[in-house]
Design a protein that fits this description.
This protein folds into two domains: 153 residues, Aminopeptidase (3-Layer(aba) Sandwich), CATH 3.40.630; 34 residues, no CATH class. It contains five helices and ten strands, in the order E-H-E-E-H-E-H-E-H-E-E-E-E-E-H. The longest helix has 16 residues. It is globular, with a radius of gyration of 18 Å. The relative contact order is 0.15.
């Protein structure tokens, strides 16, 4: 189906961000995200415009040692990772910022246990995290490089999705993966945001710039 529509202007009154089923999020990410893979999620919110699904934003938990590294053990239970933000190409360009802001509000209202969010921009495909910069996340540098499974068809999988069992992976090979640009932000009331921001263990660094005119 052709998702292109004629010059839609963003109008918040026509939009709603609500929880969506796993299968809906999986379909949108398959169609509209460069990875095509949803991965593990615990919160899935869908952007509806005039009753039509226009995109999703998804969050998931992270390993305990990674969560403790952000602001210390005290705050580790209060971390989620923004794992996927995928919008169909017909959604207005400023939809992403609106979705992120509404997701923060939804989490504050429905998941008051969450006060710290982390996300990554994949440098291997030229992303620098422009949307995180536009929504005032804290840039904390590059994550440590990882190991991924390079499929023969050119796609890339993280082996933890199959428990590092090579028998469950398509034909391919392991290869090193470069680090990703790492961003952190804080949600909740003003006092909570100040306390978690002060607890951040990583240095705040200048935003990286993308070569050329790209905005990934």
């Amino acid at each position: 189906m052709n998702n292109k529509l004629l010059d839609i202007d963003f109008d918040a009154s026509r939009c709603e961000l609500t929880p969506v089923p796993h299968e809906t999020a999986k379909r949108v990410v398959r169609d509209a995200h460069y990875t095509g893979k949803l991965g593990s999620t615990s919160v899935r919110l869908g952007l509806e415009m005039d009753g039509r699904i226009a995109g999703v934003i998804c969050f998931g938990t992270i390993p305990g040692n990674n969560a403790r590294a952000i602001c210390g053990p005290e705050y580790a239970p209060h971390v989620l990772e923004l794992t996927r933000l995928a919008l169909y190409d017909w959604a207005p360009s400023n939809s992403e910022s609106w979705v992120i802001g509404q997701a923060f509000r939804w989490l504050t209202a429905n998941r008051p246990d969450i006060s710290i969010l982390i996300s990554y921009a994949d440098a291997s495909v030229g992303h620098v995290g422009t949307i995180y910069q536009a929504t005032n996340w804290v840039y904390t540098g590059m994550s440590t490089g990882d190991v991924v499974w390079q499929c023969e068809d050119g796609s890339v999988l993280h082996p933890r999705t199959t428990g590092w069992d090579k028998t469950k992976l398509p034909p391919g090979r392991f290869r090193p993966s470069p680090g990703k640009h790492r961003y952190v932000t804080f949600i909740g009331g003003p006092a909570l945001r100040r306390s978690t921001r002060r607890a951040l263990r990583w240095q705040s660094l200048p935003y990286p710039k993308k070569a050329g005119n790209g905005t990934a």
